[in-house]
Amino acid sequence: MDIIIPVTIVSGLGLFFGIGLAFASRVFAVKTDERIEKVKTLLPGANCGACGYSGCDGLAEAILKEGVSPSKCTVNTKEGTNAIAEYLGVDEGEVSQMVARVICEGTWRNAGKKYDYQGVQDCHAANMLSGGLSQCFYGCIGLGSCQHVCPFGAIEAINGLARVNPDKCTGCGICAAQCPKGIIKLVPVLTGYTVLCANHEKGGIAKKNCKVCCIGCMKCQKVCPNDAITVREYLAEIDYTKCVNCGKCAEVCPQSCIHDAMHERLPYEPDDEPQAADAG
Amino acid sequence: MKELFSILILAVLIENFVLSKFLGICPFLGVSQKTSTALGMSGAVIFVNTLASLVTYLVNDLLLKPNNLEYLQTIAFILVIAALVQFVEIVLKKLVPPLYKALGIYLPLITTNCAVLGSALINVDPSRNYSLLQAVFFGFSAALGFSLALILFSGIRERLETSDIPEFFKGMPIALIAASLVSVAFVGFAGLVI
To answer: Full-prediction pTM beyond 0.80?
Structure first.
């Protein structure tokens, strides 16, 4: 009978700590990118560190955030590495690719023209006249300087906005260097949600210039579970080390300027015409 | 005050956990290759050991002693330490992410570290008769002693990296020999009366 007390005490302690820990893991839960978890299960799980990162967790994060190739895991089988690429929705060789993204959605329909431009059909030339023919000073001029220099024909200026064809883009960065507004950014292919606007003007003014601009309303900042998105000078910026790709910011944005750039393409409008062009 | 000071000297120098009692050798040899990792590990051990000393002393005082269950100390303390370390990891991950990134991998390493259990058991040793404050301070000082040994040794190991060592001694053999020499050096404190 005397055994009852010690058994109760030890089991009681165990139960107390077990429940306490379960409770704590709920309360202090940190939202992580679910893709990282899935990639981690697709890796061998030996935590050997041969890849140079801190365990399989570290490599999974590097694959998604820094564009490291899953073939860095020398322990994994070929099927395993392919399975990772398949899960992420890209070809095996493309996981570690960089891709160009135009941080703007200012077609002529969304952002109007400042003036009727009759000059040299080049963004650098137009940029010299009050910052280009788009009403938004920061946005895409749309005359196709990037298209002209792309060696792969992967970027086209259509209806006032440069659009990247991700199947052709090799991430060389030549377009990004050309753009006079500097709104073409080179990012790892797996980067999902992006704020597709570069406008730093106050919300009221920005809205007059473009329909889909970021107005700095901070709705995204309030809803982000990880504080990954912050509004600086009336423009939202995503910190990709904290972003878990949940898409909550995109849901609440009143201007619909945040999109999953990996899977969503700006739809073509009925009157879209390609710029008079030299396909590079 | 004087007792606390003597506890400090006792735990750090005279009865250094790693070099005199030979507890916690695993992380001592495993984590001491670089001084930066040694510092991280030391921080984690100090944090965990102090907290564990507090909670285990209370568990012993309030649950085990009134029911004459001192023989359950080992089991109960391991339970407490494991749960505590898990809890600390969860809280750190949420509240102080940079610290979690720095210490994170080391925290599970400390869970079953015999140095932490050792200091918890010494605290409740009836012949020592520590009060709560003395027990917590002993836990803190023991961890401090562990850190001293770890950081000292990491410096030595970094130096060994660039020394001319015979091929068959390179790596673990020379580390073990160096560790034993450091331990012999600490015997010099054995006669300290405080």
So the answer is: no
